[in-house]
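F.,

This is the one I mentioned.
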């Protein structure tokens, strides 16, 4: 058993050495940008990010305006109409109740008159 463990340890060490050798060899093959290219690429990235931020800000501002002046205005109109409808309904119900109470009063008076005449 101890021989198996030592063989595994040796394999792992070789694999680690091999990995780092390959890693170092790969880094040597990389074409690194010159300082001028690095500055140009960095400036390009920053400019693109700023342009994108400006576009997103503009769209947000436009949609906020549409929401405030468009959708909120429509909600106000709908709410006003709903209130008018509710008021009309309430007024009709009050009128109906008043008519019923008037009829009841008239019926009572008629009954009282008939009782008094008898």
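My design for it:
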């Amino acid at each position: 058993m101890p021989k198996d463990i030592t063989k595994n340890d040796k394999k792992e060490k070789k694999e680690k050495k091999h990995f780092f050798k390959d890693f170092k060899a790969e880094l040597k093959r990389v074409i690194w940008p010159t300082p001028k290219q690095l500055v140009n690429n960095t400036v390009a990235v920053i400019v693109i990010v700023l342009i994108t931020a400006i576009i997103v800000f503009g769209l947000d501002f436009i949609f906020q305006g549409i929401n405030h002046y468009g959708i909120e205005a429509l909600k106000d109109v709908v709410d006003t109409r709903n209130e008018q409808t509710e008021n009309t309904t309430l007024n009709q119900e009050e009128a109906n109740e008043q008519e019923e109470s008037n009829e009841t009063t008239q019926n009572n008076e008629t009954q009282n008159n008939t009782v008094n005449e008898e």
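The longest helix spans residues 35-117.

Talk soon.
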